Every structure is written in C-alpha cells, then in structure tokens.
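Bench notes, afternoon.
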Amino acid sequence: MKVLVIRFSSIGDVTQALCIPSHIRSRYPHAEIHFLTKNIFSELMNTNPFITKTWTIKSGDSLLKMVSLLNQEKFDYVYDAHNNLRSNLFYFLVRARHKLQKPMERFKRFLLLRFKINKFEMPFSGQRDLLKPLVKWDIPFSLPSGPQIFLKAETLHSAQDILNQNNISGLFVAVAPSAAHLFKRWPVDKWKELFTLSPDIQFVVLAGPTDHFTQEFNLFPNVKNLTGKTSLLESAAIIQLADKVVSNDTGLLHFSEQLDKKTIALMGAAPFGFPSKPRTVIIKKDLPCWPCSKHGQGPCVNSEFHRCMNDITATEVKQKLEQL
C-alpha cells in the first residue's frame, strides 16, 4: 500500500497534519507513506518514522514536472489534506486508485463567518478535521496519542546549548507571544502582567527576528528572551525541553501539542485549527462577534477593540498554568 499525503501550508496546519501518517499506519502498519509539502517544512518530515519519503516544492518549481515524478511512484492512495488550487492540481493529475480530499465545508464557513451560525462539530479541532475523512479508507477515527514531532539528538543538544548560553537552567515555561495576525495575539501588556504575577516562574520567550515588541519583556528578571535566536527546529526542541508552554494561536502552539507538552492555548478571532490533545487547555472567550475572520486578520467589529483577547486575564492564565 503506497500513500501520498499533500499539505503545503501554513506552519500550524502542516504541523497538525503530522498526525496523518501515524494514523494511517495504525490501520495499515506496512503502508509506505509519502508527504508532499513546501521545502521550508521538510525538516519536520525528515525525522518522522511514519513518513517513508518527503517530496518538496518551492516557489518557481515546475508543478507538472513534480506530477511526472510522483506518477513514477505508482501510488495506490492520494489524500489531499489541503484542498486548494495547487493541491487540487496534484490531486487530479497524480494517478491512484483511491483518492480523497479534506472537505472545505465552504457553506458552513460562510454561515459561521457571515451570520455567526455554527453548523460545525464542536469543539473545533484541526486534527479531527484532517483525520475524519480517512474513515472512507476503513481507518477508524481517533486522535493519535503521543508525540507527532520527532527531533534528532543533535537538535536537542543545540537547543540545550542555546539555553546554557543564555543562563537558562531548571524548570521553565516557554511562551510564544507572536502570531501571523493581530487578532490572534494576546496583548503585550497582558504578557507583562503575567510575568509580574508569576515571579517564581522562569519564562523563555520564543519568537521570530521581526517580533521586535518582545524587547519590552527584557525588563523582567524572570524572563529570558530568545527572540530571533532559534531556528524552527531549535524552537521545537526548546519546547520539548520546557516544563509547560503558553502560546497564542500560532505554529509553536501546534509544535507544543505535537510534542505532547502541557500547553495553554490563547485563542482569539480565528475559528479553525483549534488544538485537540487532552494536555492542552484552551482559553477562549465566547462573544457574539466571534469569529470576525477566517485567519484572525480582522477587521474587529466589536465596540471594544480586540475584546476576544483582551478579556483573557493574566490572572486566569496564571491559574490555569498552576493547575496544569
């Protein structure tokens, strides 16, 4: 049995899609599973024991040439776990006896985003939505237990070196205060309040080189700021080494979940791709304006700007953190 799984972006969605190979193997232990994704995500796939081969594309690559290469593999099954224009091209042109696409539920999305009428199964779960279609291949639905990200020893050693170089030792809580869109971000002042309320907790900030707002956290003695100092995999490794994680709705949230860490997820304006694991505590405010947009890009329509995130208090997060 030879299977091709397709998912190109985003980092959070690709990370959630890492549950697919192990789920297929749970039903078909000898399946040969190939994964087609963007080249920037290949590192996540290359160490996964459930993935036989990773295929990657980058901007400017010939998609038809890749189709030709994939057809030489003679796949039995193709699962388009993305269902956009590019993935559709591969779905239709790569030959296989059995094909499956992740449903987009566009009418349900329209009702939810435009009229706040929810016809989706609750609670929202990104991994559930990726795995349920596989029932058609006689793969019973269940959420995979245990980690779905697998890191090399040298990556963990590199992460430990970074911690040592920044005088980070003992237990710490990793925090991911950034996100692709404003309305997925817990306000900076809320993070600062959390740090103030928790002087006995050592926090380690993980963010990208353009997240300059995290410089405000340098004033706190219990905060170590690694903004811009780690690669994608090193960030994952530091999450692996952390005691707990607090994160906005961003790729590092899904890293934490797929590493099976105790996690607090601060969920804002976006409705889809919620965490799925029992070790993840979701904090979300139920507001009549929610959701305002598909990806958290806004605009905010509440009379109190950014209320979905502002209503999450630092005291609430601190209490949940202590209970984890």
